[in-house]
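Entry 14: structure prediction run for Tubulin tyrosine ligase-like family, member 11. Input pasted below.
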Amino acid sequence: MSDHYVKVKVQLEQMKSFGEDAEKEGVDTEEQLPVSSPPASVSPDPSSTTIAGRDASNISITCKHRGKSRTKQGKDDKNSCGKDISDLSLHGSVVSAHDGKNLNRLGHERTLHIRGTGKILQGKSETNGNYVTIHASKNVQDMRREDGFKLPKKRRPVTVDTSKAKTSLEALKLSIKQLKWKEFPLGRRTACDIYWHGVSFHDNENIVSGQVNKFPGMIEMLRKINLSRAVRTMQELFPEEYDFYPRSWILPEEYQQFSTQIRMVKENDATVNPTFIVKPDGGSQGDGIYLIRDPSDLKLMAGSQAKQGVVQEYIQKPLLIDKLKFDIRLYVLIKSLEPLEIYIAKEGLTRFCTEPYQEPSQKNLSHVFMHLTNYSLNVHSGNFVHSDSQSTGSKRTLSSVLYRLAAKGVDIKKVWSDIIALVIKTVIAVVPELKVYYQADIPPGKPGPTCFQILGFDILLMKNLKPVLLEVNSNPSMRIEHEQEVAPGVFEYVPSPVDEDVKVGVIRDTLRLMDPGHKKPSTSQPRAAGFEHREEIPMEAETQERSPDEGALPSLCLKQVYPKYTKQFNYLRLVERIAALFIRFLGVKGNMRLGPTAFRTFIRTCKLSNSNFTMASVDILYIDITRRWSGTTPDSREAGNTHTHTHKQKHVYALKQKPSRRNNM
Ligand code: ADP
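Run finished. Output tokens:
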């Protein structure tokens, strides 16, 4: 058996066990109670916990949630920390470790302040100094009064580099203020805990620690062509599960298939008269979009210099409210790739068209205000309604729309769970390639930050209430102002309460979830080609422990959906295993492409070559594949929302016209 074979076998075994592990119910919260040497022996007595230690003044108690390799929650809580201790703050914040002085000052009385709970653990050392019995006691204020006990130093505020936040700056500032964290608007010479980028992972180069709010490669993965490809791969494997994405063809390469298929459909049934929407690859905010009824229209319009893009089946029967078409902007947080952690904002936005909807006909194809829901287009219609109310106007909260539907008898629970499924499945579709991008930018062994990202999902509800994915935005607008024409041709940004309510909540709660004080120290990002064997189950959004400073904050608006629903969706994570193989066979870490030699090795190791498929054919195949793909992966550093705003001109947008002013929402 060759070395390679053994390695591949091990890898496959690991993947198998990953699959099995991930299937397991993952309730594995851990309450750790590391005590400086020697190890602790802990009494399960809820009111009195005994810790064995040689030097009681050195006691350090850390209670962590969700560590790795642990046992079931209830059992663990009880055994290691005792019932009371399961109340401890999630970020391991029992304060005692370096409180030797304070403890000594109190003589034999040992007093531990549990951050976030206002509780005191009080202990007495035995004469031999080997045991400290601690028990829940009075609150901090009482102790302070009675013993002159000094409150432990406040946790140092989390630092956020906001120098590259661009249009999210206002909402970010408000969020940081609410959290009482520290903002660095001009960056900082020493490292920050969090870097907030307005466009891409590369906005600040050479970050070696902390967390960045963008993943490398996310912009590329979510461009219209790549998203369509990723979803199509999944549609081929799981057609029923991925029927929420309209049928799409990639332009120009699939123009022939598109044309032939539509001709055949029409020949088979003359009454079928579909409409298609053409979207340029790098476009956003309705930029360059147009509707067609026949493939030949596309050819005519695009001419010989066909641009890259997608042509997609147009959803002809959307759900209407007040006779208007609308779509949903949902905010989704990818908290971590490995293990995969997805959160959905419970509140989103809905964007309304400004002309009553009619099904597409040759006559109305160019009526943008009827067919396209983009804010950036409709805001220029005379009918656009700016409203401070959340339930009226051209931009409303998602909850107000759902309430309205519920009042009409719609089963909104079902709609919501279909939306959650759509989100999880879409993320599962893009994760494999995202991991390839990730390891290319932050290869194993290279110091780098960890990443998280807020995505904007654009979802349309069909008349039959089925949600349809339109696109995913890697840079959803986080603006909390909207433009208003204060005098003819003069525009000003004025506060938009609906945007502020939703977007500040999303940013603030993302920060709360990413709070380094709440995180375990272990890396949770994909640092190597293989999978982690155990899915890590983080805390539920609803049970996120608050630090004392967070006391006044509302409960989290972000709800964890993965791994919460691992059981239902894990079987779809098939392509990730192939991505793991690919990353493994890249040979050179920190790369995105398989070189010709690695490709040969890959074919040989997988025993794919034989007398009909020689190594010469392998080389030709390699050249073929790389040629085919060379045009489809533009450089990430070039991509992004790099437009500028101009207040001077006002264009009325028409289909196929370039908007001068951009705002994704
Ligand atoms: P952009 O990134 O330019 O906003 P989208 O894919 O979001 O591109 O499309 C713009 C708008 O066009 C959407 O907000 C929606 O109103 C409409 N739209 C897009 N795709 C479809 C579709 N397949 N069927 C019906 N309407 C669509």
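Notes: Residues 577-625 form one domain. Will compare against the previous run tomorrow.
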